[in-house]
């Protein structure tokens, strides 16, 4: 008997949990044009399980191929096809950027390549884009403002801030496009220490008083004719759940808040990932970025070395212990009750005990009207930030926001 075989591609991911999540993250972007299932699975079969360097190599190679093909199609006048390929190249560069060390020049180069491809793609969109960097102390905040019409008018606006490793371009694909389809202005921005800011200033580091960032962005936005000040919402993704919550507790110009997921105590949240509190480790056990390469592999594998390097660098405190001590300042605390605008709290049921605890603390603590949603595996959305079903998550967020602003 013969056998019927319809494809050489196989649906198999990674044993390494973090790398498997990153694969799901990339596959999830297929819904919004950021990747193709076939190419993701093809690369997954080539990448050694848990090997960050192999991931970077394969996704950066794919990104360059997609970018080159996009340019060729644009030269032939195929605007739509070119825009689609530039968007995929942007997201492939982002995937490579995620697993690259932020202390090597290639990290910023991958990030800027992602940004460049995105701006090329945006030239093919039927939306108006303004991209600027707004002065903020000694830095400048990267901002994209999209409006649904070429001729601008006052509209409701959704501000979106990502977290530790998300980017403006990724959030445009994940949630911004869905908001534009529903008639929203979409403002994507990043503060100090976030991926987009570090592309320009590698030494940029996170700050706990993120309301200063949001106030600066709102000052710029409200001076523009596209903005309706009474219909301005803020959405925080991942670590951005802290940024957005902290900002809404201090900034009354936020008229609706979506926390996906709510983080009210970043130190406790990150302790859950570490499995202990590095802030109380003995000084002799502390380590710096320079010491990470000589840590034995049986104590810290290559993926953990990479993540530790990026964490220490992005918090700007020089060592692992000092980074976690600094995280103790990233707490909303009693200011949570100052959030009086309507709020939506989101959580995937697969996110674990500490995210669940902080979700519940957020729901108990805010003073304004509260709604919440727990996404399930049956909905394909139980993972962190619902990366497995972005369109469903966006529907929940934007239907709720439509009702708030109706």
Automatic annotation (TrEMBL):
Transmembrane segments: none annotated. Residues 141-270 form the Xaa-Pro dipeptidyl-peptidase-like domain. It holds the Pfam family Peptidase_S15. It comes from the Bacteria. Coiled coil: none annotated. GO terms for molecular function: hydrolase activity. SUPFAM superfamilies: alpha/beta-Hydrolases. This is Lysophospholipase. It comes from Desulfocapsa sulfexigens (strain DSM 10523 / SB164P1). The lineage of its organism: Bacteria, Pseudomonadati, Thermodesulfobacteriota, Desulfobulbia, Desulfobulbales.
């Amino acid at each position: 008997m013969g056998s019927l075989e319809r494809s050489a591609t196989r649906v198999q991911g990674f044993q390494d949990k973090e790398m498997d999540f990153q694969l799901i993250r990339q596959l999830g972007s297929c819904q919004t044009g950021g990747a193709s299932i076939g190419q993701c699975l093809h690369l997954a079969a080539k990448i050694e399980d848990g090997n960050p360097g192999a991931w970077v190599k394969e996704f950066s190679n794919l990104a360059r191929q997609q970018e080159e093909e996009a340019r060729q199609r644009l030269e032939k006048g195929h605007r739509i096809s070119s825009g689609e390929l530039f968007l995929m190249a942007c997201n492939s560069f982002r995937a490579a950027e995620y697993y690259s060390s932020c202390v090597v020049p290639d990290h910023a180069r991958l990030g800027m390549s992602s940004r460049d491809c995105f701006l090329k793609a945006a030239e093919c969109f039927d939306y108006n884009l303004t991209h600027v960097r707004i002065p903020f102390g000694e830095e400048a905040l990267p901002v994209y403002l999209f409006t649904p019409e070429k001729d601008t008018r006052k509209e409701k606006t959704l501000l979106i801030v990502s977290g530790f490793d998300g980017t403006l371009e990724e959030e445009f694909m994940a949630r911004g496009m869905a908001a534009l389809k529903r008639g929203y202005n979409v403002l994507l921005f990043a503060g100090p220490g976030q991926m987009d800011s570090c592309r320009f200033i590698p030494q940029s580091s996170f700050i706990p008083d993120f309301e200063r960032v949001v106030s600066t962005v709102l000052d710029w936005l409200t001076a523009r004719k596209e903005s309706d000040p009474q219909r301005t919402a803020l959405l925080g993704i991942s670590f951005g759940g802290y940024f957005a919550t902290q900002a809404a507790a201090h900034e009354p110009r936020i008229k609706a808040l979506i926390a996906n997921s709510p983080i009210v105590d970043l130190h406790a949240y990150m302790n859950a990932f570490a499995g202990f509190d590095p802030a109380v480790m003995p000084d002799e056990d502390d380590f710096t970025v320079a010491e990470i390469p000589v840590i034995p592999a049986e104590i810290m594998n290559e993926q953990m070395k990479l993540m530790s390097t990026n964490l220490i660098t992005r918090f700007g405190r020089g060592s692992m212990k000092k980074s976690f001590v600094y995280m103790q300042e990233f707490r909303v605390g009693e200011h949570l009750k100052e959030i009086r605008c309507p709020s939506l709290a989101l959580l995937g049921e697969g996110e674990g005990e500490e995210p669940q605890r902080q979700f519940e603390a957020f729901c108990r603590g805010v003073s304004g009207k509260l709604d919440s949603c727990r996404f399930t595996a049956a909905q394909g959305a139980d993972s962190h930030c619902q990366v497995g079903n972005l369109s469903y998550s966006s529907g929940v967020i934007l239907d709720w926001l439509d009702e708030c602003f109706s």
